Amino acid sequence: MRIIVLLLALFGTYCVKGQTSQNSFIDYQKSFPKITDVVKRKQDTLMKQFAAQGFTWPANQIYIRSFKYDSQLEVWIRNNSREPFKLFKTYKVCALSGSMGPKRIQGDYQVPEGFYYINEFNPRSMYHLSLGINYPNASDRVLADTYQPGGDIYIHGSCVTTGCIPIMDNQIEELYILAANAKNQGQDFIPVHIFPIRFNNEVSVQYLNKYLQTFTEYAPFVEKLKDVYYYFEKYKKLPVIAVDAQGEYVTNIDRADVMPVARVKETKPKYVPKPRTRISFDEKQIPMTVNKLPVFPGGNEAYQNFLKKMNQELNGLLEENQHTAYVLVEFIITEEGKLINPVVVRGGNAALNDGILDRFEQLGPWSPAIRQDSRVPMKLKQTVVIEK
C-alpha cells in the first residue's frame, strides 16, 4: 500500500537549530510593535509560571491539542525528544462553530479534526494575534472538496469564530510567545491535534456515541483519532502518523497496547416499588372550593420542617447522575383529618418515591378543610424537592 508520509517533524521528531542566530525569529517578531508590547507584559509572568512548575524557560518543544465538544485547548512542553511531554496549561476555547466531524468544504463553519501543525505567525491579525494551522493537510487534500476545501484556520483571540479555535486575548498572547520561543529554539513544526472530544470524559463519550448513531460513516475516522489520543495519554509522546493514498491516517500504534480496558459497570438490582393499599374513597365528595384549607399538624412552620427533614434523609436515594429531583405528590385529607392515598404524580425514582410516600403515610391527623362551617375532604398537591 502506497503511503504518503507526513513530515515526521510534526509528530515527534523535530528539526535541529539551523545556522541562523538563535534569536533571529524572536527578533523578527519583535519588529512588530504589538509583539514587543506583548513580550514586555507577558514573558516575565510566563517565566515565573515555568519556574513554579519546575520547567526550564523557554520550552524547546510544545505540543497543542484541542477538544471541540469539551471546549479546551491544552499546551504541553518538553526540552528534548527523549523526554515525555508535560502539561503546562489548559485554556478554555471560548466559542465554537459547526459540529462533530472533520472540515470538508469551504463555508461549512466546521473546526477541522485531525493532525496539523502551526504554519503561520500573524502579529497583524484582525483577531488580536493568531497562529495558523496547516488545513488542508495531506489527508484533507484527498478527502475534502477538491476545488473548495476551505482554509484560513487559526488559533486566535477575540473569542469569535466561523471555524477557527478562539481563546481570550490574554491567552493567545501567552500561546503566541510560547510558540514563537519554541520556533526560535528550532521547533519548525509545532504539532496541533484537534479531537472531537476528550475520549476519557464519560459525558463527552456519551454525546459522541449518540452522534455516531446518526453519522455512522464518521466512526472509522474517530477510531484513528482515539488511537492517537490514548497513545499520548499512555506515553506522553507522539506517534508516527502518515497518510495513505486514500487520505486515511496511518499510525504505528498497537491498539491492544494503548486502548483502555472497558470497565463493566456493576448493575444494581432493579428496585421493586412497595405494594400500597389504596383506601376506597369517592372523590366526588371533594368540593371545588373551600373556605379554609387543611392545616398540617403543628402548622405551616412544622410542615416546612417536615419537608426539609425529608430532603436530608432521602437525598442519598438520588441516582448517581441526579443532583436534584422535583417530586410531585398528590394526597387526600379526609373530613376526619386523615391523610390517605398518597401517590407520586411525576418525578423521582422508585426508591426515592417510596421513601417520600412512606413519610406522608406516617403523618398524624391534620386539621381538615372547612366549607361553610363544615369539615370536608380536600385533595392536595405538594412538590417535594430532594437535592444533594
List low-pLDDT spans: 4-21
| Main pleated sheet | 8 strands, mixed
Task: Give the structural class.
Answer: alpha+beta
Oligomeric category:
single chain
CATH architecture of the largest domain: Beta Barrel
Strand content: 15-25%
- The overall average pLDDT, rounded, is 89
Arrangement of strands in the largest sheet = 4-3-2-9-5-6-7-8
Q: Give the CA-CA distance, first to last residue.
A: 57 Å
Classified in CATH, the superfamily of the largest domain is: L,D-transpeptidase catalytic domain-like
Q: What fraction, in percent, of the residue positions are helical?
A: 25-40%
CATH class of the largest domain: Mainly Beta
Element-by-element helix/strand order: EHHEEEEEHEEHEHHEEHHEEHEEE
Instruction: List how many beta strands DSSP finds.
Output: 16
Please compute the radius of gyration using only Cα atoms.
31 Å
Count of alpha/pi helices? 9
State the domain count.
Answer: 2
Provide the CATH topology of the largest domain. Answer: L,D-transpeptidase catalytic domain-like
The global form is: elongated
Question: How would you characterize this protein structure?
Answer:
With 388 residues, the chain is α+β, with helices and mostly antiparallel strands. The protein folds into two domains: 3-258, L,D-transpeptidase catalytic domain-like (Beta Barrel); 283-387, 2-Layer Sandwich (TolA/TonB C-terminal domain), CATH 3.30.2420. The protein has helices at 24-30, 33-52, 138-143, 169-184, 202-214, 219-235, 255-258, 300-314, 350-361, and strands spanning 3-5, 61-67, 72-78, 86-92, 114-122, 130-133, 153-156, 165-166, 191-195, 241-244, 249-251, 324-333, 339-346, 369-371, 374-376, 378-387. The strands form four sheets. The protein has an eight-stranded mixed beta sheet with strand order 4-3-2-9-5-6-7-8, sandwiched between helices. A three-stranded antiparallel beta sheet has the order 1-10-11. Strand 3 and strand 4 (86-92) form a beta hairpin. The two termini are 57 Å apart.
